[in-house]
Amino acid sequence: MTTRDRADACPGAVQTHLAADGRLARVRVPGGLLTGPQLLALAQAAVDLADGALELTSRGNLQLRGLAEDAPPELARRLHGAGLLPSEPHETARNVVASVLSGRAAGGLVDARPVVRALDAGLVADAGLAALPGRFLVTVDDGRGDVHGLTGDVGLVAVDPDALALTLAGHETGLRAAPADAHRLVLRAAHAFLAEREAQRSRAWRVTELDDGPARVACLVGGSATPSAVPASDPPVGSVDQAGGLVALVGLVPLGRLTTAALDVLVQVTAALGSEVQVTPWRSVAVPDLPDEYVDDVATALHHAGLVFDAASPWAQVTACAGLPGCAKSRADVRADAARAVATGTLPVTGPQHWAGCERRCGRPAGSTDVLAVEDGYRIGAG
Which residues form the signal peptide (predicted)? Predict the structure, then answer.
């Protein structure tokens, strides 16, 4: 059990964080889906109010950096107008990731999109759930196993076309519900987490930080907790076939930073096709519903704007925290150093690696090797 001595202080779009390069705002995007107008609103806000880029997080959310002290109210106004801030009290609680291209790509047992919409609506309508910590994560997996492997605090995973199973921090509960009702299981589990946290007089941010958390939360919702293996599934990269002859493109975003050039292309594509995009927990962007004749042109434009469509690229293995100059705690400009190592073929290890400027290792994906900045360079594999 982890003991927390303070409440979670994760930034949001209203509750911003003061970094070395200005205010940082984090916009929750349940399920990662953005309509064209929402993407345009975010891109314009990045240019007008922040440093011009959008950052992708490991929970499929978006960050704006370099905001002036007086910018957050204007950002909040724009987000309200775009439907991206339905409830200010709940803004940091809406951490929901969903299977990539669910309802579009082959292999899923259910369409996760309506489940996520119902879950988000239920969450923001429940005043008590505004107390959920900003680190509390919900996953909705359509049966392909991609986000189930992220081991959320509360999860739904499709087990057949008519049922989703409730999981708690990688534990099966034995509870199932039809797709139309599954969101209610999640809301019950979220309340159970808050009730157990209060009973333990804890400030826990995650289910596993409670004493016997999965078992006790499961008991409160009428189930039991059985540890289960959660296999990791490789996220898609490149071209993905959809039904009806349409194609989706999934591009890696190096260091999770969507530049103005990339945003311009994405905005143009969504405007031309009346479509949407999905940001993923693997710092990639999915562009669905492309007619075959558009695929090459869109891929070329996004490639020139910096996105990567090759799963074998070194960028598929490299993540990094903000580093200098954005974070005063960092010992190095880790993003620049990581980019230089990729360009010169001098990455220090093979496989997933996270470049971090200090021991906090912000944004570190599970299973990555640490490339930790120290006073005289980098230490590899620091625990």
Answer: none
CA distance 6 to 202: 10
- pLDDT (tens, 9 = 90+) of the chain, 383 residues, equals 567 767 777 899 999 999 989 999 999 999 999 999 999 999 999 999 999 999 999 999 999 999 999 999 999 999 999 999 999 999 999 999 999 999 999 999 999 999 999 999 999 999 999 999 999 999 999 999 999 989 899 999 999 999 999 999 999 999 999 999 999 999 999 999 999 999 999 999 999 999 999 999 999 999 999 998 767 677 899 999 998 899 999 999 999 999 999 999 999 999 999 999 999 999 999 999 999 999 999 999 999 999 999 999 999 999 999 999 989 899 999 999 999 999 999 999 999 999 999 999 988 888 899 999 999 999 998 55
Same domain, 213 and 154: yes
Examine the domain organization and report whether 227 and 298 are in the same domain: no
Are 229 and 340 in a shared domain? no
Q: What is the pTM of this model?
A: 0.94
d(CA 320, CA 254): 10
What is the domain range of residue 361? 317-380
CA distance 58 to 315: 15
Do strands 353-356 and 369-374 pair parallel, antiparallel, or not at all (unpaired)? parallel
For 112, phi then psi, to 5°, come to: -75, -15
Which pair of structure tokens corresponds to residue 302?
């996004």
Residues 6+ apart with CB under 8 A from 174: 223, 224, 226
